[in-house]
């Protein structure tokens, strides 16, 4: 009941008044501050408190449904193993159980209906925001607090005129009393100012036929609102698993990557291996480099591939590297046709179910440094990509500072001239400025609208929102072309 009242209050207040309301509604949660200050708090509890603080400011009335989905069981998909001897039988069995091939789903009527629904929801969101702001103004006038209205009239008018309120918002007052490093973490994670005008966006994919899928790539899922679970995968006579279960949203960055035969492909942060498997099943005739810096994650990565791909094929087409992804751009510049950089992030869903995660108070500094580290990885990925090649950046968080913010800063930074005063670029062998452009993924969103809930207010790339009827994500991805 406390959370219900908490969300109703948030949805009825504009961004400028949330600062005051959080103080009032924070008290039932903790005796002193809205964030857990006692050392016995589990990091998953801290993560939820942080999300309840930050995400209503971004997603507004959609946050309760997103929150519910994050706290519910995720909905997996089954990536069929084309090398398994039971490949055909497994697909027939899944179809009998009611599953559909997500990549080949061609119900045009359903797709069109969901596109119309999304458009109506977008319009309703704008109308809802304006209605609530005007309603708040009228309530203040009736309560005799019109002086507050006058003081904030400019802010209210700006909220009505602009649709990018997800990119800028204020920091609540209680944070000022926390220790300095915790305050820094909150400010960096919550405050995100995205310019939105420093990167050019092209719509090269609008004519792409997303129904042309390679015969080796099959991904099965159950229809919307069907929360059936897949049985554990089994091994065939050759010892290979028949399918690999994963989050369905992980398929989208691979679709965006658009790998072609004989491409040289780099998966910069490859473990645990689900996205890399999709890349290889999408286009087996490539040279795939899988990199990860962590020993345990690298071992898990190789184990997954050994369970899914024959050894002779593995040796011939796949290279495993254990190194610092930030150095790939320096060590192997302009070497790959396609680069996927699925960076470490706050992993929102994982953070709510794991007792020790990046929201742990022992990892505050790591969380503070996370956007800068993500930017280094993306810049390294772009440097490792050939001119004309494609880089896809992805995360599994809803936070704008780790998504659009990283993309914008990385592309802007690479475009800077490496003059003698720009010392931070001296370590690279090729210090010439690199120009990039973002390729719109709107046509991809439209094609997969039946399976995924996409956030409409986003500057660069696409963001999959968890939704209880099809509980995928969260996942952000952005398609970038290196021009020079």
Write up what this structure looks like.
- The chain has 484 residues and is an alpha/beta fold.
- Helices cover 42% and strands 14% of the residues.
- It contains 19 helices and 14 strands.
- The chain has helices spanning 2-11, 15-26, 43-54, 56-59, 63-70, 87-96, 108-142, 146-151, 153-161, 180-190, 251-257, 274-282, 295-308, 311-317, 328-331, 348-353, 364-384, 404-414, 442-447; strands at residues 76-80, 100-101, 201-202, 219-221, 243-247, 264-267, 287-291, 318-321, 336-342, 385-395, 436-439, 453-454, 462-465, 475-482.
- Strands 3, 6, 7, 8, 9, 10, 11, 12, 13 and 14 form a ten-stranded mixed β-sheet that branches. Strands 2-4-1-5 form a four-stranded antiparallel β-sheet, with helices on one face.
- Helix 12 (274-282) links the parallel strand 6 and strand 7 (287-291).
- The longest helix is centred in the first third of the chain and has 35 residues, at 108-142.
- The protein is globular, with a radius of gyration of 23 Å.
- The relative contact order is 0.15.
- The model is unreliable at 1-40, 146-178 and 418-428 (pLDDT under 50).
- The active site is at 396 (nucleophile).
Radius of gyration over all CA atoms, rounded? 23 Å
Q: Biggest β-sheet: count, sense, barrel?
A: 10 strands, mixed
CATH homologous superfamily classification of the domain at 76-106 and 199-420 and 429-482: Vaccinia Virus protein VP39
For the secondary structure, the number of strands is 14
Oligomeric state of shown chains: single chain
Termini separation comes to 56 Å
Strand residues, percent: 5-15%
Q: Number of helical segments? A: 19
The pLDDT mean sits at 80
CATH top level of the domain at 76-106 and 199-420 and 429-482 is Alpha Beta
The global form is: globular
Structural category is alpha/beta
Helix content: 40-55%
**Any guess at the CATH architecture of the domain at 76-106 and 199-420 and 429-482?**
3-Layer(aba) Sandwich
Low-confidence stretches: 1-40, 146-178, 418-428
CATH topology of the domain at 76-106 and 199-420 and 429-482: Rossmann fold
